[in-house]
Design a protein that fits this description.
By secondary structure, the chain is mainly beta. It contains one helix and twelve strands. The protein has one domain: Lipocalin, CATH 2.40.128.
Length: 176
Amino acid sequence: MSIKSAKWTVRPGVWHSRGTEEVLKIITTTPVFHHLIATAKVSTAMIVVDDLGVPTFARVVVETDSLIGMTAKLSERIRSQSILDCAKYPQILFESDSFQPLVEGFRVSGTLQIKGRRIKKDLWVKKLTWSGVEALAIKGHLDLAASEIGVGLIKRRCLANTLRVEFATTLEFQAD
């Protein structure tokens, strides 16, 4: 379960996001198309790594008011009460329960809190790369059925059953 098996060693301790250009891409997917509908910024992200190089906890927070649709009308619709209800639910939160190493990356199982609901989800980390001695770049995605948060998105007469949230972030080491 150690990250060491991924051809590099992670320094034990707490890793935090830089808080700069961490952007999520929100994509609707159907059997017919994949369409970027919005972006959002990660407000905080952190991973705790134990002394053996094993990740033990991860947490990602997104402020819902950072969601920006591809059009002003779409931004307004996403933030509305019928979709995310940003006024009532200002944050989206993911907290890990477990990490499973894969051939490339990890499956991070945990709980996604969105729109007042707690949903068991897997976050797929596909790429881990060093971007300096004290920095780690992570890329991956999370798939979310629109019905899990009680919404249906219609685009070009096709019901978009799935939202794919793609992420890329850089974490820096923070001494305890």
